[in-house]
Amino acid sequence: MPSVPSPPPLNSNPAATAFSLDGKSPRTANEPSGPKPSEVAEEPGPSEVEGARLRDELCEAMAAIHQRGWCDGTGGNFSCVLQRQPLLLLMAPSGVDKGKVKPQELIVVDGDGRVCHGSGRASAETLLHLAIVRETAAGAVLHTHSQAGTLLSQWCWERGRKMPALVENPDEDGIAYLEVSDLEMLKGIAGITTHRSAVRIPVLANDQDLGRLSRRAGPNLERAPAGLLIAGHGLYAWGQNLSEARRHLEILEFLLEQRWRQLLLEVLMVRGHGSAPDTEGPGELGR
Amino acid sequence: MPSVPSPPPLNSNPAATAFSLDGKSPRTANEPSGPKPSEVAEEPGPSEVEGARLRDELCEAMAAIHQRGWCDGTGGNFSCVLQRQPLLLLMAPSGVDKGKVKPQELIVVDGDGRVCHGSGRASAETLLHLAIVRETAAGAVLHTHSQAGTLLSQWCWERGRKMPALVENPDEDGIAYLEVSDLEMLKGIAGITTHRSAVRIPVLANDQDLGRLSRRAGPNLERAPAGLLIAGHGLYAWGQNLSEARRHLEILEFLLEQRWRQLLLEVLMVRGHGSAPDTEGPGELGR
Amino acid sequence: MPSVPSPPPLNSNPAATAFSLDGKSPRTANEPSGPKPSEVAEEPGPSEVEGARLRDELCEAMAAIHQRGWCDGTGGNFSCVLQRQPLLLLMAPSGVDKGKVKPQELIVVDGDGRVCHGSGRASAETLLHLAIVRETAAGAVLHTHSQAGTLLSQWCWERGRKMPALVENPDEDGIAYLEVSDLEMLKGIAGITTHRSAVRIPVLANDQDLGRLSRRAGPNLERAPAGLLIAGHGLYAWGQNLSEARRHLEILEFLLEQRWRQLLLEVLMVRGHGSAPDTEGPGELGR
Amino acid sequence: MPSVPSPPPLNSNPAATAFSLDGKSPRTANEPSGPKPSEVAEEPGPSEVEGARLRDELCEAMAAIHQRGWCDGTGGNFSCVLQRQPLLLLMAPSGVDKGKVKPQELIVVDGDGRVCHGSGRASAETLLHLAIVRETAAGAVLHTHSQAGTLLSQWCWERGRKMPALVENPDEDGIAYLEVSDLEMLKGIAGITTHRSAVRIPVLANDQDLGRLSRRAGPNLERAPAGLLIAGHGLYAWGQNLSEARRHLEILEFLLEQRWRQLLLEVLMVRGHGSAPDTEGPGELGR
Q1: ipTM for the complex shown
Q2: How far is the CA of C239 from the CAs of C2, C129, C132, C140, in angstroms?
Q3: N or C, where is chain C less crowded by C-beta within 10 Å?
């Protein structure tokens, strides 16, 4: 199992970065220098204007997601990449109502998941955000706790455990797949151009050890359809930027809810008529 | 299979039209003339004020439809007829969040589906909007991706494929019908004056070739109840103007969601009691 | 079958009324007199201020009801009593989006359902509003087309038709009852003080002849729990004033949606285990 | 059965309290003295600013809860502790639309449930709020009437009555438990740190005698997961402060709705395949 590569140490010489971490006042070259810059060449970060814009957009996205009922009870977390080298993410602090976060309340975390700017704790799930960003080059990661995401991931994982043929490694490192196919909405996922497609969303067992969970997730992210399910927990969706991540989130949540409705109908159809769905004739259901 | 008649070439002499394509500044007769006007007599288009009003209304309609959860993930598309001869439609560009489009961001497409004003691409589905407008004289076409529309269209099409007696041409050019009857809300569809009615919403197989899909749809549009379903895809609703199209959309989406609930109940009722629904006596369900 | 008493002729001498029909300018005693006042003593109507307040409240109520998805596609209608003797109702005109009506767009209808002030047509269902107001002394009547109201009324009526023992007069003048019991929310209905209650909401067959439907409804209104269902159509809820009517509407719609969920559960429970619900032991469902 | 201790008599000498009950004007020492202060030492109450803030927050919370559809038809009630010794709660008056209460309309009730400031009646359920505050040291109690809370509590209680092994005291003082386990959202409940948990929400029979209901509830509150269900009635959720109470409410309502969906799926799975859920093979449901 490949390990997620260690992130480079955070450059603590702010003078080398062209942006301001709080989105307000830019750092200047006059600030005292700290440890030498890391050996990885640093990209210039976003300008102050872009940083402020990203903060506003992330807060607006979280408010919209909360409005959908997808991050109740302070659940969920949402990140944007502020800078790639070294890696810095913009996120809400842990344990707050994500629907009410103001731009200045966002925190910046580094490639180890440590807070390097702002007040509050970083969520432990930051490690999974970092893994997704590293493996997929995503620019934003959105993690929700929706009804459909929680239910379908649990159902799929439980079913996989009982039916080992469906599970690639039927032990604790196992993975199951929730398949959705033949729907137009699949085309909302980057790279899918026809409804005659099937996506298999990887489903991992939930795990409070986020380092371990991130390492399990890592190898499965590149081929994933911009989404990953954690059983009985929820969905991670991502995209090249916040806009694409939001589109992927809406598409995947739609597909999960649709799959739930399909499941009800499939089970009901099979129930009454053995293995041949829908043979009761047009009389009952033929309208 | 009758072909959809070729649209007349777009009149490229703007001086002949009385309105402004961007809803802002009217064209004047002093602008240089281009190719000769088409042989089809041109109607005067909407005035600048009407054009601006239509833009505002279309954006407001899309925001309301997005609020309903009917066009997530940049799905769906919505058009108004700006001018009939030659045909010009006002639409949102493809691939944008339909809930956030501003009036000035709308595009104008011609009778061939080409963008003739504004930034962005026209959706491939524009061809189906054009077919509906030509066959039904609709003034607006609203295409949604709702949960009920996606599920019921798929279910109906699959059922039709398995039960050829229900399908008129049980091959790829086949069509199925989703029937809804005996509901007061049917009266929201133009021409229906009593609940003792049944509407049959045509259901076509999904197809990424929108030209072919539009040609299949064409012959079925005139007798359709202001709506058409594409299996596993969604609903097209239309009306003489945007207001009527919105009413038809709300009515049809209501009927689809109602049909879904009816289906759950019907299947459950049949399940326990053979062919006689609801004979378990008042004890269990008699309240 | 008792007939609904004929309403007294509208007093067409506006000088005798103390209020203004449009909520704006009061009538004066100088206006020409018309036919003699009816023999029924006239109450003074609401003052101009009260009339304006009522208009605002009714529009706000309709916007909130539309927000709930209870009057889509211009369906539904909502009335307040403006004056009792002679009877005058304030309503939205027929065929408009009830969620967007402005106070000045409301119409006033008389005791025969004729528009006596404002633009637009009165809904045919005005006759049922009038019947409810006369039989129950209601001050407001709210008629919705919700998913649960449409489905449960249809299911209840169909079940009643098949099981004559449940239906008092099992012919076209028949009536069925939807019973809801043992829920705390029942206490939201005036006169109900304990959850150990059962309400029986009368259900009538739908009928496009609203005069006939109103006459059928009449005898059943006094004992009804502030609500009446029309099969496959929806709910009428009422109260002494608009505030109480809104409370009754919310309570009854809650009970209908709850009854739907109960029904799913009841049918599923019976399905698997014969006549003894829920005997599969704690293992499956015992959590 | 231990009784809830009698609350100390309300200190009716306002001069001894440092805050203003209406959140506006502080009481002064010049006001006439009443009975001697109680023997329990009085804590200084919140300052005027804090009192006003609490009023605003409570009204905002109620508006958000009403927006969720969790307190329709004037149902539900919501309290914050204004002062501990002697106990004073801030609440909305009984029988009002909780979504529209303004800060100045809130009432203050004492430890006996009597209104000591403001207009309107205190809900009878105030006694249960007081019991919860006393037993758990909660700073806020939120009581909702949601669809899931009403349905699941009723289902759980009925099931417990039929299956005495599940009920600790299978008589009228009995209690049942709704168990939810293995979900990440459980971590939103204070003290729960892993999804590998199970919470058992106590369910009591509904009772119009709130004194008796509160005494039954008392012994079960300390070990409850910040929530209590009353059968066919709804949920009480609480927390150390309003913010924590809101988080607990959202978490518990999420878990109830999730449990409902799980229940549908469980029952459907068992239905077709005896005691072994989900053995029909991947063909039907294996996606």
Answers
A1: 0.82
A2: 23, 12, 10, 6
A3: N
